[in-house]
Amino acid sequence: MFFTRLYGYHTLEDFISRLRDKISKGSRVLTPGEPEFTRANERWTEIDRKTPAVIVQPAAEEDVAIIVSPKLGFIEKILIQDGSGCSPWSTIENGLIIHLSLFKEVSVDQDRHTVAVRGGVLVKELQITLSKQGHFTTVANGNTAIRGAGQFFGNVTELVLRTHKPSLMGPDGVRQLGMIFYPTERASEVCRVLKNVVSANDHASAGHFMVMNDPSKGRMLMVAGQYFGTGPELQATFQPLIDLGPLDHAHQPSTFESHSDHLSWMCYKGDFKRFSQTGLRSINPDNFERLVHLH
Fold first, then answer.
1. What pLDDT score does 114 carry?
2. Which residues contact 232 (CB under 8 A, 6 or more apart)?
3. Reduced 3-state DSSP string for 16-85
4. pLDDT value at position 233?
5. What is the pTM of this model?
């Protein structure tokens, strides 16, 4: 059976046999039909999910170098994946996936205030490790699968990030997280109140404003606010949104290692779903109302 441009070999089986001989014993080479292959190929969404020819789970950085080495011979299409399956692009047809779920390390340098992140470390794993040592770090948009940047950097297996003390974010480094739900028909009035809340200069807040579909309740709006302060301060700041009479609302304190736990119910794998995110400098109620109608 032939696959897309398999260099140096007549069959995929030849390539896999050679690969298994070269990589370390702790690594795994998975092929279609194996239960471990099916689990490794699970994704957050089934949309456009493809089936690779082989999934390799390296145990060390040296294994990654072997997999991509021209001396070994390789499949032209190679994809690096952190193992979470959350990215809609973490799929490939008839190619090779380097699945970094077995190769993950976090090394904290207390003196230099840095952390070395290796392999497929996920955001929560990173922040839990840092929290135990009294630090946190920022990870841009939250995608921490270490990979290259197209043709420019190749396959990156380690990043070094600056760390900070939690007190930088306020007392005890604790944020407040709120979730407020509304029917989509109220998009206009919710946007107008939310615009006033986020435009105020007397507090620091952030968050998500989502159009989402609940299987039992249908389409809804969710304001997932973040507030840097105490619980009572959050309640006072977001009270105008509560006064609108939402379907439901709740809030809870959050540290960096648990900052996404309140959204864990959205993270189950499977089904046909999408997640699109756009950063906004300000809220335009009319534009968002049109977006809700298009959703």
1. 95
2. none
3. HHHHHHHCCCCCEEECCCCHHHHHHCCCCCCCCCCCCCEEEECCCHHHHHHHHCCCCCCECCEEEECCCC
4. 84
5. 0.71
